[in-house]
Amino acid sequence: MDLEHKFCRFDSDVQVIEGTKIEGYASLFGACDQGGDVVSKGAYARSLARLGQEGRAVKMLWQHDPAQPIGIWDEVREDERGLYVKGRLLDSVEKGREAAALIEAGAIDGLSIGYRTVKAAKNDKGQRLLTELELWEVSLVTFPMLPSARVASKGETPDDAALRELAEALEGLRANLAGD
């Protein structure tokens, strides 16, 4: 089976700290993405356990390019909410420095997982329910597929980000209703 990618905007809890440290959710359980897929709780458990047993780690890549590692995920785990990642952009790597600058400027706000589907089924809504995934990498990307999660700029609180996103959504709704 081919490697698949699942895009997710950074969660509002994700921030760049000290220019290189990032953390947040790369995947949210139960959320339907733009491709009609829903990741179920526990989908990553076997893969993460296997990686740990083999002494391997999930890779941090730039735009899914295996020739461009940009950092290290120090922690990758499932919790009640989704797939939590915490790591460091490498400032000794040119793309790592670029990624930190782009995140801080708001030009990049997405995470995407690279994986292989092990088990999936259609749910009663016609969505593909992903129940077991083999996780290979988590990339920083331009275009995420799960728009409900996003990155907060350095110095911006999650509440500020949520309020700004709500204001933008309301303005778009107003424009649609007015026929703009």
Automatic annotation (TrEMBL):
<feature type="domain" description="Prohead serine protease">
    <location>
        <begin position="19"/>
        <end position="153"/>
    </location>
</feature>
<dbReference type="GO" id="GO:0006508">
    <property type="term" value="P:proteolysis"/>
</dbReference>
<keyword id="KW-0645">Protease</keyword>
<keyword id="KW-0378">Hydrolase</keyword>
<dbReference type="InterPro" id="IPR006433">
    <property type="entry name" value="Prohead_protease"/>
</dbReference>
<protein>
    <submittedName>
        <fullName>HK97 family phage prohead protease</fullName>
    </submittedName>
</protein>
<dbReference type="InterPro" id="IPR054613">
    <property type="entry name" value="Peptidase_S78_dom"/>
</dbReference>
<dbReference type="Pfam" id="PF04586">
    <property type="entry name" value="Peptidase_S78"/>
</dbReference>
<dbReference type="GO" id="GO:0008233">
    <property type="term" value="F:peptidase activity"/>
</dbReference>
<keyword id="KW-1188">Viral release from host cell</keyword>
